[in-house]
Design a protein that fits this description.
Elements (H helix, E strand, L loop, with lengths): L1 E5 L4 H13 L4 E5 L20 E4 L6 H8 L4 E4 L6 H6 L2 H21 L3 E7 L23 H20 L3 E6 L1 E3 L8 H10 L4 E4 L5 E6 H14 L5 E4 L4 E3 H12 L6 E4 L14 H5 L8 H14 L1 H9 L2 H12 L9
Parallel strand pairs: 1-2, 1-4, 2-3, 4-5, 5-6, 6-10, 7-9, 8-12
Antiparallel strand pairs: 9-11
Bound molecules: nicotinamide-adenine-dinucleotide (NAD) and thymidine-5'-diphosphate.
Length: 342
């Protein structure tokens, strides 16, 4: 099977490509990725020489290049996106361009190419903040609260519209917060782990009681490969982690494993519009026959080990600046991280 993967130089996309090449001998992969700050060829250094893999450096909003890259593909697995909530609050423009327009360009090309399955990789954030003990099901409405979540919700609607209007065989997946190797160190867990290795404080937003459902990236990519085979076009599948933790609880778990004192956690002003809780019901995926393989505790331990042994991967990313570094400076100065917005 020839698969066009978009955003394969990023965190989840690179883990997906590695998984498919390791588990499907007949797979051929074209990776369409423009290489933004979050795209890193180092993420796929180990498979760069594999003849079944080819990287096309192009923008998913460019119809001509997308058409060429998709030519002859059987399936599309669409990861490419601007993916960090804090960046979307400071500057939503690139989120609208890539996540919304880029998705439509891919859907149009897929129709012309007669793609047999199009997996649109989305997020639990489109459901909005979920109060109480409820878990979002695939039938729930979309109530996105950040510009990032709103742009993903818009792309989900476009993907659904392509199925209804043109019978394009689209499947939408909505996963919870991923963690694992190759995650850019601006997201909560890699920022926390790498800051702790550097002896720096981790900035905990607000009261630290926001709840996230943590999903190991290796389970996520295995679920996507499973859905690519077994999923039904037109359907939505939630992919949850079954590990709901308050941010404070997550920090404590990491501190305990890494033996970090409480003084390395700094409470900072909250993220504007910070969703209180995400939680997914993924019984539909389990009924389809998918089995999650990794326990949260073991995966968290493995992830910390990975960052410990891959300093040469993450150190240049932190040195190159970016938003994590910008926030760090604000915290050091004792100013609010979002003073720029005021
Ligand atoms: P990431 O930010 O690590 O990687 C995004 C990749 O997309 C990068 O390689 C980047 O170069 C590429 N890209 C961005 N704009 C592009 C463009 N215009 N043209 C071509 N390539 C472009 O993201 P991630 O964390 O791996 O997330 C991948 C997908 O999974 C996203 O769609 C995201 O919404 C979704 N998702 C992420 C999570 C999570 O916890 N990280 C959870 C659920 C869903
Ligand atoms: P993040 O990794 O940005 O994912 P998302 O906002 O998409 O869920 O953040 C996960 C949680 O951690 C979220 O509740 C915000 C919080 N957080 C902090 O407390 N400090 C930080 O420096 C970051 C990046 C996140």
């Amino acid at each position: 099977m020839k698969i066009l993967v978009t955003g394969g130089l990023g965190f989840i996309g690179s883990n997906f490509i590695r998984h498919v090449l390791a588990t499907q001998a007949d797979a051929q992969i074209v990776n369409l990725d423009i290489q933004t700050y979050a795209g890193n060829p180092e993420n796929l250094k180990d498979i760069a020489g594999d003849k079944r893999y080819f990287w096309v450096q192009a923008d998913i909003t460019d119809p001509a290049l997308v058409g060429r890259a998709m030519s002859g593909a059987d399936a599309v697995v669409h990861f490419a996106a601007e993916s960090h909530v804090d960046r979307s609050i400071l500057d939503p423009g690139p989120f609208l361009k890539t996540n919304v327009i880029g998705t439509q360009v891919l859907l149009d090309a897929a129709r012309l190419e007669k793609i047999k399955k199009f997996i649109h990789v989305s997020t639990d954030e489109v459901y909005g903040s979920i109060p109480g003990k409820r878990r979002s099901t695939e039938k729930d409405g979309l109530f996105p609260n950040s510009p990032y979540a709103a742009s993903k919700a818009a792309s989900d609607c476009l993907a659904r519209a392509a199925f209804v209007t043109h019978q394009l065989p689209v499947i939408i997946t909505r996963a919870s917060n991923n963690f694992g190797p190759y995650q850019y160190p601006e997201k909560a867990l890699p920022l926390m782990i790498t800051n702790f290795f550097e002896g720096k404080t981790y900035p905990l937003y607000g009261d630290g009681l926001n709840v996230r459902d943590w999903l190991y990236v290796k389970d996520h990519v295995a679920a996507l490969a499973y859905i690519l085979k077994e999923g039904t076009p037109g359907e939505i599948y939630n992919i949850g982690g079954d590990t709901s933790l308050k941010n404070k609880e997550l920090v404590l778990k990491v501190r305990e494993i890494m033996k970090i004192p409480p003084s390395l956690v700094a409470r900072v002003p909250d993220r504007p519009g910070h969703d209180r809780r995400y939680a997914l019901n993924d019984s539909k995926l389990r009924k389809l026959g998918f089995e999650f393989k990794h326990s949260f505790e073991e995966a968290l331990f493995q992830t910390i080990e990975w960052y410990k042994t891959h300093e040469s991967w993450w150190q240049p990313l932190k040195k190159s600046g970016g938003y994590a570094a910008y926030y760090q400076k604000q915290y050091k100065k004792g100013t609010a991280p979002f003073s720029k917005l005021a």
